[in-house]
Write a structure and sequence with these properties.
six-stranded mixed sheet; 5 helices
């Protein structure tokens, strides 16, 4: 198993949780971003810098992805592609995207996108990551790693 992080928009606190998990369990972790990132010195943690552009990081993750790998992303279309190719996707707020729920998440995302495109105000984006969001992410990550890393 390999953990891939759609790292351009991934909160620092989530990356720190992932760094600790990779070290603790010896699981390779790669952060994919269009800018240089700082990471701890570790044989398990690496970065992959891609060119700037629409979906460049997403496409690189999908190119490298193997079945059963885990992708950390808030990008629902990327999560849908990950699931379609046999991988797993986890949102930084702790939502594990699955074959059973990804269509619902895509439909909600598409509806909100349509509303924004027609000028309907839908808010200023997602709320800041809360302490309970961080805990939900850490708990879901632990459950996933216990289930799939053995």
């Amino acid at each position: 198993m390999h953990i891939w992080v759609d790292a351009d928009a991934c909160p620092r606190v989530i990356k720190e949780i992932l760094f600790r998990a990779a070290e603790r369990l010896g699981i390779p972790l790669t952060l994919v971003a269009n800018r240089p990132l700082k990471t701890p010195n570790s044989p398990y943690i690496s970065t992959l810098q891609v060119a700037t552009g629409f979906d460049v990081a997403d496409n690189q993750i999908l190119k490298q992805l193997q079945q059963e790998d885990l992708v950390i992303t808030a990008d629902v279309p990327l999560a849908a592609e990950v699931i379609k190719t046999g991988g797993h996707a986890l949102n930084p707020r702790g939502t594990l995207y699955t074959k059973n729920n990804i269509q619902e998440h895509l439909a909600t995302r598409n509806l909100m996108d349509e509303l924004r495109n027609t000028g309907v105000v839908t808010g200023g984006g997602p709320p800041s990551l809360s302490k309970s969001d961080r805990q939900a992410f850490a708990n879901q990550l632990d459950r996933f790693l216990i289930k799939y890393s053995c």
